[in-house]
Design a protein that fits this description.
This protein is α/β, with parallel strands linked by helices. It contains ten helices and 16 strands. Among the domains are: 149 residues, ATPase, nucleotide binding domain (Nucleotidyltransferase, domain 5); 62 residues, Dna Ligase, domain 1, CATH 3.30.1490. Helix 5 packs antiparallel against helix 7.
C-alpha cells in the first residue's frame, strides 16, 4: 500500500522546536522531492523527544503539512531521544516464535519500567560466534506505551494517519548512509570507504550518536547536549533573552579554529567563547563512543563522521570536530539520493536546510520499504 497517492511517501519529523515534513516520489532509481515544509513546534509541546501536548501539536502539524502543499493522509513518523531504548541482544539459535519470547524476557534487563508499559519490536539482524557458540543477533527497540500513544494522538489531531512509527536515529542513517560510505576525498585521508560510520544527529535538547559498520548497528547513544545548551550559554554570556540569543547564534555563530585569525567582530568571539565548553563536551562524548566501539571491534576503524540536525549548520563545527576527533567530519546532505527542483528548494538554500531535514527524508524513504 502506498502513502499519499499512488507513488509518494511522506515523512514527518516532530522536533522540540520545529516540525519538518517531506514528500518523496520515485524518479527512476532515485527519488524526487515533491513537497517539503516546516512549522514551529508550540512551546512545551515536546519535551525530551516525547509529545506532551498532542492537541496543540496537531494544529502545528496541520500548518506544516498545509504550507508544504501535502494532502492529509498516511505518514511515516518517529519517536526518539530518551523516549526510546535500542539494544542489541545475542541469543542461542531457536525457532523464531521462541526467539521472540526469549528476546522479550531478555529485554526486562534493559527497560527501567514494566514490560507491559512499553511497545517493543524485535528484528533479527545477523549471527555471530562467541566462545565457539553460535548466537543470533537481535535488535530490540522499545518505547513507553504512553509516549507512543501521545505521538499517535498528535498525528491524528493533525489530520494524519500513522503508517509506520520509526526511530529517529534509524531514519537519519537511512537518509545519510550513502554519504557516510562514500570514498573520502584525497585531501582527507582520514576517511575510508567501507569503514565504520559515526552519525551525530544534533537535536535541540539532546543528540544521538550512532555507529554503524556495513549494515550492522554497532552502537547507539543519546546524550544531553543539544542546540538549546549552546543558546543558553550565549544568553548567559551576553545577558540576553533565550530567543534573542538563538537569533544571534543563527546570524553570527562561528566556531573559531585554533591557529586561525581571530575575528574582528567581538560578538563573534564572545559567541565562540560561550559555546566552546559545550562543543568540547560534544567532542568528548563522540570520542568516547568511538573509543568504546574500537574496544569491542578492534579490527575495525571509523572512516567518517556525519553531522545532521539544525545545529550541524553552525559554521566550522565540522572542521572543529575533524580536528578534535582526528576523523573526517562532514555535514549531512539527505538529498543526495533525490532530485530537488528549484521550486521546492533553491540550490542556494540546500546546504542550510538539508541537515535539519535528514530525519524527515529518512522517514519518507522508509515508506518506500513499507508500501
Amino acid at each position: 500500500m502506498a502513502l499519499f497517492g499512488a507513488k509518494s511517501f511522506v515523512g514527518l519529523d516532530i522536533g522540540s522546536h520545529e516540525i519538518k515534513v517531506v514528500e518523496l516520489g520515485p524518479a527512476g532509481g532515485r527519488f524526487r522531492v515533491l513537497h517539503m515544509g516546516s512549522a514551529d513546534t508550540p512551546p512545551g509541546a515536546v519535551k525530551e523527544g516525547a509529545v506532551v501536548e498532542p492537541q496543540a501539536l496537531g494544529v502545528a502539524i496541520r500548518q506544516a503539512v498545509g504550507k508544504a502543499g501535502i494532502k492529509p493522509g498516511r505518514v511515516v513518523s518517529a519517536v526518539g531521544g530518551q523516549a526510546v531504548i535500542v539494544r542489541e541482544l545475542k541469543l542461542p539459535p531457536m525457532p523464531e516464535d521462541e526467539l521472540k519470547q526469549a528476546a522479550r524476557f531478555e529485554a526486562e534487563r534493559y527497560i527501567p519500567y514494566g514490560v507491559r508499559e512499553v511497545n517493543m519490536d524485535f528484528d533479527i539482524i545477523g549471527e555471530t560466534t562467541e566462545e565457539n557458540q553460535r548466537r543470533i543477533v537481535v535488535l530490540l527497540v522499545a518505547a513507553r506505551r504512553d509516549v507512543v500513544d501521545k505521538h499517535v494522538q498528535a498525528l491524528e489531531a493533525g489530520g494524519l494517519a500513522p503508517y509506520v512509527l520509526d526511530v529517529e536515529s534509524f531514519a537519519v542513517i537511512r537518509a545519510l548512509d550513502a554519504q557516510a560510505q562514500a570514498t573520502a576525498a584525497p585531501q582527507a585521508p582520514g576517511g575510508t570507504a567501507g569503514a565504520a560510520s559515526v552519525f551525530v544527529d544534533l537535536g535541540a535538547e539532546t543528540s544521538d550518536i550512532v555507529i554503524t559498520e556495513g549494515d550492522q548497528l554497532r552502537l547507539t547513544r543519546n546524550i544531553n547536549i543539544g542546540g538549546d545548551g549552546l543558546t543558553k550559554a550565549i544568553a548567559t554570556r551576553l545577558d540576553m533573552e533565550f530567543q534573542s540569543a538563538a537569533q544571534v547564534k543563527e546570524e553570527k555563530g562561528v566556531v573559531v579554529l585554533e591557529g586561525e585569525p581571530a575575528p574582528d567582530d567581538r560578538t563573534v568571539m564572545a559567541l565562540h567563547e560561550a559555546m566552546l565548553p559545550i562543543l568540547g563536551d560534544l567532542a568528548t562524548e563522540v570520542r568516547r563512543s568511538m573509543d568504546y566501539f574500537q574496544t569491542r571491534w578492534r579490527e575495525s576503524r571509523v572512516g567518517r563522521v556525519v553531522l545532521s540536525g539544525g545545529t550541524a549548520r553552525l559554521t566550522n563545527l565540522d572542521r572543529f570536530l575533524s580536528l578534535e576527533l582526528g576523523v573526517e567530519t562532514v555535514i549531512g546532505d539527505p538529498f543526495l539520493q533525490c532530485e530537488v527542483g528549484e521550486r521546492v528548494l533553491p540550490a542556494a538554500q540546500r546546504k542550510q536546510v538539508g541537515p535539519a531535514m535528514a530525519t524527515a527524508v529518512g522517514l519518507a524513504l522508509r515508506g518506500t520499504v513499507e508500501r
